[in-house]
UniProtKB/TrEMBL annotation:
Pfam families reported for this sequence: Alpha_L_fucos
Glycoside hydrolase family 29 N-terminal domain span: 28-332
Keyword Hydrolase: yes
Family membership noted in the UniProt record: Belongs to the glycosyl hydrolase 29 family.
Name of the protein in its database record: alpha-L-fucosidase
A GO-annotated cellular component: lysosome
Upper classification of the organism: Bacteria, Pseudomonadati, Bacteroidota, Flavobacteriia, Flavobacteriales
Amino acid sequence: MVKKLFLSLFSLVFFNLYSQNEPTNDRLDWFKDAKLGIFIHWGYYGVNGITESWSMYHKRISHADYLKQGEQFTASNYNPEQWLDLFDRIGAKYVVLTTKHHDGVALWDTKYSSLNTVKHAAAKKDLLAPFVNAVRNKGMKLGFYYSLCDWSHPDYSPVTFERIKNTKKFYPQKGQKNNSPWERFVTFNFNQLEELSAYKPDLYWFDGDWEHKAEEWKSAEIKKSLLKWNPKVIVNSRLNEYGDYKTPEQGVPIVRPEGAWEFCMTMNDNWGYFPSDTNYKPIAQITRTFVEVISTGGSLLLNIGPKPDGTIAKEQVERLEALGQWIQTHKEAVYNTEAGLPYGHFYGPTMLSKDHKKLYLCLFDAPKNYIQLKGIQTKIKSIKVLGSGENLNFERNGGAAWNNIPGILRISVPSEKSLNPYVTILEVELEKELVLYRGHGNAVELNM
């Protein structure tokens, strides 16, 4: 019996499932707490409503016709303050803007390429500087998307399409005649990154690293330079093996990535403005995806694709506003929380407050009969529905408390008016820090 009791006691653990074996990195602290970021894909591709850069790769449009879209890329109604008012209002904590996609078109007045919105587009202005100011004025974290590959650059390879003749006119290369084409291109990347680093971004979101090895990109040197220019900057996982956090895309991970991570997702099927793509995700799906991501310790980087004039499509605004309203109603479960219970305790996403004294249960659908919670060793003070404040009855059933087996907690079903149309959250307040029963189950050899 003593042996059985020892094994049972040994199976009790304080909840720290997702914090074990993770490296401490102060640079990532803000990122782990961010929960929601906004990804912005804005470029020439929105003029014709085609796939960003990849439409050239797949030869659906010629390089010449792709670049010709710049003649209608006006940014005439661009108001970054309005963008940031919206992002701040919905609860986003960071934003990531495509400063340059694979097509090579830069949104700032780079001196290393005339293929930018000042010299090549109808906009005739730097779009990055006012964006940075708007982000800083809101106190949000600033992220720069930057493509390592530049399919318009004459020294870059491989490319799958025929570039326009004399692309060298876009890329000044004084004093580099004796360098190899690849050396010139790598120098070009470093030069542009140094320009961008003058804005002191908090995050770099690289892309395209799969086209070359780390040694070719000089990824280690890039990371070293970025930290030299800004010691607090963090980098996504697309700088070969030199990233700080994981960035799964479009498909929600079934198994949680190790360490810090974010999930980036489009609202419809495309990243840029694509008016013919009306396959927008329902608000319920976006909200549930957000909950699934934060319940496993990640952040959602939700994408928008502004129009060529700088306005945001109403379908995208509606979804941002709806998600923001849900977050505002359930902010206790979103901010200052961490990944929730391991599998088996509750059949749905959960979050845990950082002091481990409140547990948040997520209901995707209206429950029947009762709500079941298993393996909670700590005594429960109260359970209520966030938003409505409705208090719910609960009772323990089964188990063997004298043998440290807590049994099942049965929670009454909320009234219909308390159920949220997207995701309902129950707040379980504990008397002390959460302690879980994680045993395999034993024979109860002594009954009380």
